[in-house]
């Protein structure tokens, strides 16, 4: 397929959203969110979604489109993103997909292995069982039923433990079997991938500064509103960066200084993991390793212009 699309990947607080908006404004684009937490409607501040003013400067899609009670899988997001891209192309616009969720981006560009549908009752039972047993005992029980998949999983990762159990319950087959099947559902497009890889010291300083700014913008009130929904703590939205720490602050088990420092540390660690993932998983990206500046923007615009003008 010859239709062009841009992907902007990189760690949190690296300037992806600002770059995406600049490209969308310069090249008649639509910004499409690829951040697994920015899809939720109640977490604008905590997830650093674009501001309402920024959203008026170019079309933005898939921001705040789901309630936090929904578990937004890569497959669900990919279907929504494919629709948003098709809409952009029909309008003569350039899709600019931006985010730090590597699995979303990989699924969009390369597809995903098929998986069975999970009935709501199995999902609810699995979450309740995990909460009752605890991770270690749940992992041990999974190892008895599905030793291959259990050996691949970190016992501390509740989400993946539950997923492996759900698939086994729903299909009678290991998640490892489903993952071995050919990937399907990639969106056909001509891709230009931009990977932001800023200097670590600058990135970590941005992480710390941004969380302090979030606190000033009402992040704690946002988390209190989320807690008032009394959702399953295993849901992805409940684990967004900053939410667990601010939940403890709201509950009186952390001071504000402790919560901010813990959230900043978690954000820096997440950024480090994102950098590692993108360095090994993206295929032939245009790497932007310098701090974003007017000069760097000009260089990136030149790459985009060349990409759009080069015959497929």
Automatic annotation (TrEMBL):
Q: Which segments of the protein form a coiled coil according to its record?
A: none
Subunit details for this protein?
Monomer.
Function of the protein: Catalyzes the transfer of a dimethylallyl group onto the adenine at position 37 in tRNAs that read codons beginning with uridine, leading to the formation of N6-(dimethylallyl)adenosine (i(6)A).
| Residues the record lists as binding substrate | 12-17
User: What is the originating organism of this protein?
Assistant: Magnetospirillum gryphiswaldense
Q: Which gene encodes it?
A: miaA
Q: Which UniProt keywords apply?
A: ATP-binding, Magnesium, Nucleotide-binding, Transferase, tRNA processing
Show the Gene3D superfamilies listed in the entry.
1.10.20.140, P-loop containing nucleotide triphosphate hydrolases
Q: Which GO terms describe its biological process?
A: tRNA modification
GO terms, molecular function: ATP binding; tRNA dimethylallyltransferase activity
For the region Interaction with substrate tRNA, give the residue spans. 35-38, 159-163
Cite the position(s) of the site with description Interaction with substrate tRNA. Answer: 101, 123
Q: What EC numbers are recorded for this enzyme? A: 2.5.1.75
Tell me what this protein is called: tRNA dimethylallyltransferase
Catalyzed reactions: adenosine(37) in tRNA + dimethylallyl diphosphate = N(6)-dimethylallyladenosine(37) in tRNA + diphosphate
Into which family does the record put it?
A: Belongs to the IPP transferase family.
The residues that hold ATP are 10-17
Q: What cofactor requirement does the entry state?
A: Mg(2+)
């Amino acid at each position: 397929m010859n239709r062009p699309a841009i992907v902007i990947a990189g760690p949190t607080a690296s300037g992806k959203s600002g770059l995406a908006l600049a490209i969308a404004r310069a090249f008649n684009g639509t910004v499409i969110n690829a951040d697994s937490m920015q899809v939720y409607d109640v977490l604008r501040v905590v997830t650093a979604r674009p501001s309402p003013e920024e959203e008026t400067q170019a079309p933005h899609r898939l921001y705040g489109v789901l309630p936090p009670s929904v578990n937004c899988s890569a497959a669900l997001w990919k279907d929504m993103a494919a629709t948003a891209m098709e809409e952009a192309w029909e309008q003569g616009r350039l899709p600019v997909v931006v985010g730090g969720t590597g699995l979303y981006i990989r699924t969009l560009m390369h597809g995903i292995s098929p998986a069975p549908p999970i009935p709501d009752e199995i999902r609810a039972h699995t979450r309740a069982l995990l909460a009752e047993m605890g991770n270690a005992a749940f992992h041990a029980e999974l190892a008895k039923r599905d030793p291959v998949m259990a050996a691949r999983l970190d016992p501390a990762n509740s989400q993946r433990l539950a997923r492996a159990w759900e698939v086994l319950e729903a299909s009678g087959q290991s998640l490892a079997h489903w993952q071995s099947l050919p990937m399907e559902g990639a969106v056909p497009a001509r891709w230009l991938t931009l990977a932001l890889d800023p200097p670590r010291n600058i990135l970590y300083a941005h992480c710390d500064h941004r969380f302090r700014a979030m606190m000033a913008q009402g992040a704690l009130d946002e988390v209190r509103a989320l807690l008032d929904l009394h959702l399953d703590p295993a849901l992805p939205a409940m684990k967004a960066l900053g939410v667990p720490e601010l939940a403890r602050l709201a509950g009186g088990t952390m001071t504000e200084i402790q919560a901010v420092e813990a959230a900043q540390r978690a954000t820096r660690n997440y950024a480090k993991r994102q950098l590692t993932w993108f360095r090994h998983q993206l295929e032939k990206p245009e790497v932007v390793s310098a701090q974003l500046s007017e000069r760097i923007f000009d260089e990136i615009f030149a790459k985009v212009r060349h990409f759009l003008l080069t015959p497929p």
